[in-house]
């Protein structure tokens, strides 16, 4: 069904309403205007859609279903034709998309690293014994406990501003945020330390913004083509293939990072127990093509899955259930 356009509107962009999501949608609008002479800010409408994930603030998303909570309502609007495209943080995207939709463009990836945030301490390793760290990410929890098993981890939810406010209120001594998000919000100075990829391998697709469209909407896809960054798309394809191979969700502490280096895609991946004490790692390279990137991610995922064994996943499921019960 074609989108119902207001007079003068040529394109509708769907997004969540958080400051970061809006900044990403505004960035896409600015890029579209720069790429097309017949588009202006006034002819591209940003449509804010509240998702289930935005409504759930009192408990961990593991209780309620995971990643798809940040995309379902937006994808419903896309399928209904009330928007033409949707702007997402790639790491929020489930590995399986609804029939009829595709990720048709990726912006060039921002800094993929995690930032250590604390009003009192400059470095993660400077935290005193027993310090309280707030995060809702099982990956960040596991990686923090891997290096500092003495820390106390508490759940922090909400957008960037909410989590920073909780930190200022003394709910925790420190937290972690994506460097990319801080950069997009012009809040880079909030980072006390940018954590190394060696110690804190990021979430798959962290730092990459993607644009989702209907598969049969060639008009919108052609508009987005000048925005597409091939190297980012290849890296994210590999990382999402790893997630799919590991049945990755917000209940699974998985980290991965792929980059293009010349004619190769280079990738590192990691699976952890939620206490960070069991770690399975794999890395490799493949020719820089979409099919080979997907194959690389899938193979590394299968390698980690075999190394970990079924008992690890059974134990992980029990650990997660204990956390949310």
Could you characterize what this model shows?
The chain contains nine helices and 13 strands. Strand 1 (11-15), helix 1 and strand 2 form a beta-alpha-beta unit. It folds into three domains: 1-107 and 208-228, D-Maltodextrin-Binding Protein, domain 2 (3-Layer(aba) Sandwich); 114-194, 3-Layer(aba) Sandwich (D-Maltodextrin-Binding Protein, domain 2); 229-325, Porphobilinogen deaminase, C-terminal domain (Double Stranded RNA Binding Domain, 2-Layer Sandwich), CATH 3.30.160.40. With 325 residues, it is α/β, with parallel strands linked by helices. It is globular. The chain has a five-stranded mixed beta sheet, sandwiched between helices. It has helices at residues 19-35, 52-55, 72-80, 138-147, 160-168, 179-184, 218-224, 230-245, 290-324; strands at 11-15, 44-48, 85-89, 101-106, 114-117, 132-134, 152-154, 174-178, 193-194, 209-214, 254-261, 264-272, 279-287. The longest helix is centred in the last third of the chain and has 35 residues, at 290-324. Helix 8 crosses helix 9 (290-324).
